[in-house]
Amino acid sequence: MKLIDWIDLPNLGDERGGLVVAEASKNIPFDIKRLYYIFDAKPDIPRGFHAHKELHQVAFCIKGKCRMLMDNGLEKQEVWMDEANKGLMIPPMVWHEMHDFSEDCVLLVLASDYYDESDYIRDYQAFLVELKNERV
Ligand code: TYD
Q1: Which of 23, 31, 107, 134 is the most buried (most CB within 10 A)?
Q2: Residues contacting ligand 1 via CB (< 6 Å)
Q3: What mean pLDDT comes out for the span 1-23?
Q4: Alpha-carbon gap, residue 129 to 39, rounded angstroms
Q5: Active site (annotated) includes residue 96
Q6: Which ligand 1 atom is the nearest neighbour of the CA of 111?
Q7: Which domain holds residue 88?
Q8: What is this structure's pTM?
Q9: β 57-63/47-52 pair status
């Protein structure tokens, strides 16, 4: 699977403004059980720094911009998120970090499951070890 995988949702907007629709198991490739959003983040304070064991997520920067670093242990890539209709897939076992939030940034995340701290890997070395164990 590609490390950077966007979901392009159509903008159904018109002269009245933008409108983007996400539907579980239709244009979002999982059943959405949770959504959360990050706002008022500080430009100089990055967030994330974890991977998930099982969780699938898709992140939309619906206002402003931020830079997302994605790392599958073999390859690292950075992308700017600044389009409200473009969702970045965050599959299991991808270390991700969010940097350089604009002050107006609103990052909306759709998730395939409820919050579960035991699904998080918050230590980078532990992430690499887990990947190695998966490969054998
Ligand atoms: P954290 O994982 O540190 O956020 P980020 O990945 O953006 O750096 O989450 C901050 C706190 O919020 C942490 O105590 C866990 C809690 N939290 C929930 O309770 N439910 C959730 O759905 C999320 C995403 C976080």
Answers
A1: 107
A2: 34, 36, 38, 47-48, 115
A3: 97
A4: 32
A5: no
A6: 22
A7: 6-11+21-135
A8: 0.96
A9: unpaired
